[in-house]
Automatic annotation (TrEMBL):
Residue ranges annotated for the Succinylglutamate desuccinylase/Aspartoacylase catalytic domain, each copy included: 104-282
Cofactor: Zn(2+)
Keyword tags: Hydrolase, Metal-binding, Signal, Zinc
InterPro entries, per database record: AstE_AspA_cat, N-alpha-Ac-DABA_deacetylase
Ranges where the record places region Disordered: 389-425
GO molecular function: hydrolase activity, acting on ester bonds; metal ion binding
Protein's name in the database: Peptidase M14
Pfam families membership: AstE_AspA_cat
Length: 425
């Protein structure tokens, strides 16, 4: 029995010695080169394992904002208050965050920086609550009322008569306007990838729905192309404006003007809402409802309703009253006029004298005053001069007279001085 065990124990050593004597060991028991020819295709109709797997998509994580987490595919209404007890006696600003189920950019829609410009408030409210988060690629942050101080009093300004849209990005010290601007910039604007700031005309003026953008910046120029057939006016803006401050830190931003202050105008609101919906389609945040199915023929009616490329107005001119009296307009907002055409008249009711306001250039009425009592120098009509996008970009980058939109209000704003090109944004 012991002899049998010794033989079995010695057997592996003998086998190993024989293999070594035969030559080096092979690393595998199949040919090194793959066999010639191609593998046969699977039978037709057979489902492969990958057919049951969902398509790979970018992971969407919850958005951390204002000390809350907004999970993908949901909408949450938050509240924003500047720190330091600045607005402890005021209602908070609502912030509606719609976090899409799919990956995409963060679009911020802001209104009510001027408290009496309520068209923008309704525009942002509609857009913030109408988008389906389960079908949205990206995130929409809607802030319908930034300046709750002015909104609660029906005023453009903060309680100390400062214009909030002259203090962005603000600082932690200084005036109330600077502190509010800084808090809003840090708490909300810092989350944005692109921003639209809604305004209206001011001081009893009305603006045709229009986008104002600094076309000297390539990222802003590209952004301005996505609003359908909405008028685009080149304007670098003034220091302290929200769109200027946001663009300076890498967030492409524009101002969207629509209508007049102190009233709700359904037509202007609807045009602005439609423009933002087109924007979301162009930047890939939502599907185009007018798009045809892949491979299907285009519907001629659908194609006919698609907006034309946006007209760009590089230059603009204000036409001002040279005498005081009663202003009566003879043109309408959006109307095309020729050089020398009569825009309106100013009537002196004491002397019973009428003086006419004539268009210095041909263009389109993109802003105008309401009929009212005016003083000499009052900006009555804003004319936009149409040009091509290429010419607009070329001329926007050359030195020249800037298209200014507002006087610098300083510590306490003086009555507006409507110099050429100003539009009280």
């Amino acid at each position: 029995m012991r002899r049998l065990r010794r033989r079995l124990t010695a057997l592996p050593s003998l086998v190993l010695a024989g293999l070594l004597a035969a030559g080096p060991l092979a690393a595998q028991d199949f040919p090194i080169d793959p066999p010639a020819g191609t593998a046969p295709a699977p039978p037709e109709g057979l489902a492969l394992p990958t057919d049951f797997l969902p398509p790979q998509t970018d992971l969407v994580t919850p958005l951390a904002i204002l000390d809350r987490l907004v999970v993908p595919g949901t909408r949450m209404q938050l509240e924003w208050r500047p720190g330091g007890g600045i607005s402890s006696a005021e209602i908070p600003s609502p912030v509606v965050v719609t976090r899409g189920a799919l990956a995409g950019p963060v679009l911020c829609l802001v209104a009510g920086v001027h408290g009496d410009e309520i068209n923008g408030i309704e525009i942002v409210r509609q857009l913030s609550h109408s988008v389906d988060p389960t079908r949205l690629s990206g995130t929409i942050i809607g802030v319908p009322i930034v300046n709750v101080h002015g909104y609660s009093r029906g005023s453009r300004y903060l309680p100390d008569r400062r214009d909030l849209n002259r203090f962005f990005p603000g600082t932690r010290q200084g005036s109330i306007a600077s502190r509010i601007a800084n808090a809003f910039f840090q708490d909300v604007v810092s989350h944005c990838d692109m921003l639209v700031d809604f305004h209206t005309g001011s001081f009893d003026r009305s603006n045709l729905p229009q986008v104002r953008a600094d076309l000297t910046r390539a990222e802003v120029l590209e952004f301005s192309r996505h609003f359908g057939n909405t008028v685009v006016l080149h304007s670098q803006g003034n220091k302290g404006m929200l769109r200027v401050a946001a663009t300076a830190v890498g967030i492409p931003s524009v101002t969207f003007e629509a209508g007049s202050p102190g009233r709700l105008e359904p037509t202007e609101i609807a045009q602005a809402v439609a423009a933002i919906e087109r924007l979301m389609v162009h930047v890939g945040m939502r599907e185009d409802p007018s798009a045809a199915e892949p491979g299907a023929a285009l519907d001629p009616d659908v194609v006919a309703k698609r907006p034309e490329p946006a007209p760009i107005f590089l230059d603009s001119r204000w036409v001002r009253a040279n005498s005081g009296g009663l202003l009566i307009s003879e043109v309408t907002l959006g109307q095309h006029v020729q050089a020398g055409q009569r825009l309106g008249r100013v009537i002196d009711p004491v002397a019973n004298v009428e003086r006419y306001l004539l268009a210095p250039v041909g263009g389109r009425v993109i802003g105008m005053s309401q009929n009212q009592v005016v003083l000499p120098g009052y900006a009555a009509f804003h004319l936009g001069i149409q040009t091509s996008e290429q010419q607009a970009v070329e001329e926007a980058g050359t030195p020249g007279d800037a298209v200014e939109e507002d006087p610098d209000p300083g510590e306490r704003p003086e009555p507006p001085d409507p110099a050429a090109g100003e539009d009280y944004e």
